């Protein structure tokens, strides 16, 4: 595994709303931001975030992506939502991500300037967990996965490890699950494109958090990821956490049939094999997500990354209608079948013990 230094995000400014400033966890976030040398920390007079918009879309994007907002999650944002196929429930420690991936899935789900909002009322956010224990449609209702417990996905609206050096929220959640505060039959899950796991390695995690790393073939990651840790760093971090006894996982996403994709994804799986070699008691899972977009996410991504080379032509895709009437564009059936067949066979051949939790 190559040498690397963990990749950190350093915002230019931190905005703290008045209500957030009253929360004990905000004090910890501010301590971390000061220690990280954030040049501008602003205590706002009210709860409205101001100063995020620039004169152009470009400036607004740049200002928002370099700002950490510390806010209070309202009850509507705290209510756990079902999040199939990943987990029984979604719990958000934050909303927004500082990285610059040109396919970012958040473009379709979050509106407004892409600022990262860290939730200061962490105890209230995590306080939603007990009411959902034993309920859910993904692991709780599955005869083959019920042993995982009730699952809570922490990375639906953010990359929790990417902002962890500035918030400490993820380590708090992991340690709380590890302490048995929510019993034995619970599992937190997160996925990340970052690699600084130093605050997680030594935690008493109790095996109740599955740390997944979002990885991709070099031609995709090198071209379309931005501001994240290199894939080699993510795999090194996966190894560190696996050696520390964490259940770990691969999120291979978004899969794209780039030229010579079998070779490119084969090289990625070779690197995964090297990263997990010799880990005692390895508990590794895989999730695979093919690239998709919606009309809305395409418009947002093209406004953020006007020169992107990302292929987002509706005419080259198959339109799928969701339960709620929205349209998403996925690869045509024969392309999907080719990708799925290859990944399923390669995973089974290389990692027979690794379950593929879902393919989508
Ligand atoms: S790391 Fe994930 S959430 Fe962040 S910009 Fe990239 S795709 Fe979006």
TrEMBL record:
Look up keyword Lyase and say if it applies. yes
Q: What class of enzyme is it?
A: lyase
Name the keywords, alphabetized: Lyase
Domain of life, per UniProt, equals: Bacteria
* InterPro entries to which the protein is assigned, alphabetical: SPL (IPR049539)
Might you report a single GO cellular component term?
endospore-forming forespore
Which GO MF term does the entry hold, naming one? 4 iron, 4 sulfur cluster binding
**EC number(s) stated in the UniProt entry for this protein:** 4.1.99.14
Q: What is this protein called?
A: Spore photoproduct lyase
């Amino acid at each position: 595994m190559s040498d690397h230094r963990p990749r950190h995000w350093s915002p230019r400014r931190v905005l703290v709303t008045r209500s957030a400033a009253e929360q004990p966890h905000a004090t910890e976030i501010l301590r971390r931001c000061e220690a990280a040398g954030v040049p501008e920390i602003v205590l706002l007079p009210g709860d409205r975030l101001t100063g995020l918009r620039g004169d152009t879309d470009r400036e607004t994007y740049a200002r928002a992506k370099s700002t950490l907002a510390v806010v209070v999650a309202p009850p509507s944002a705290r209510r756990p939502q079902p999040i199939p196929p990943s987990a029984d429930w979604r719990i958000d420690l934050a909303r927004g991500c500082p990285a610059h991936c040109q396919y970012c899935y958040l473009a379709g789900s979050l509106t407004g300037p892409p600022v990262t909002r860290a939730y200061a009322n962490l105890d209230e956010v995590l306080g939603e967990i007990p009411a959902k224990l034993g309920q859910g449609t993904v692991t709780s209702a599955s005869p083959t996965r019920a042993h995982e417990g009730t699952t809570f996905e922490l990375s639906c609206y953010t990359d929790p490890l990417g902002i962890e050096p500035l918030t400490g929220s993820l380590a708090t959640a992991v340690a709380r699950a590890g302490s048995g505060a929510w019993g034995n039959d619970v599992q937190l899950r997160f996925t990340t494109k970052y690699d600084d796991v130093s605050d997680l390695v030594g935690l008493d995690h109790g095996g109740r958090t599955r740390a997944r790393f979002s990885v991709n073939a070099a031609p995709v990651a090198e071209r379309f990821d931005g501001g994240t840790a290199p894939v080699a760093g993510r795999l090194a971090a996966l190894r560190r956490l696996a050696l520390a006894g964490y259940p770990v996982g691969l999120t291979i996403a978004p899969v794209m049939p780039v030229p010579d994709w079998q070779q490119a994804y084969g090289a990625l799986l070779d690197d995964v094999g090297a990263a997990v070699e010799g880990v005692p008691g390895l508990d590794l899972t895989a999730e695979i997500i093919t690239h998709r977009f919606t009309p809305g996410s395409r418009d947002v991504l093209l406004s953020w990354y006007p020169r992107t080379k990302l292929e987002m032509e509706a005419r080259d895709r198959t339109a799928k209608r969701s339960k709620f009437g929205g349209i998403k564009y996925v690869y045509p059936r024969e392309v999907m079948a080719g990708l799925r067949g290859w990944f399923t066979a390669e995973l089974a051949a290389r990692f027979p013990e690794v379950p593929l939790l879902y393919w989508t």
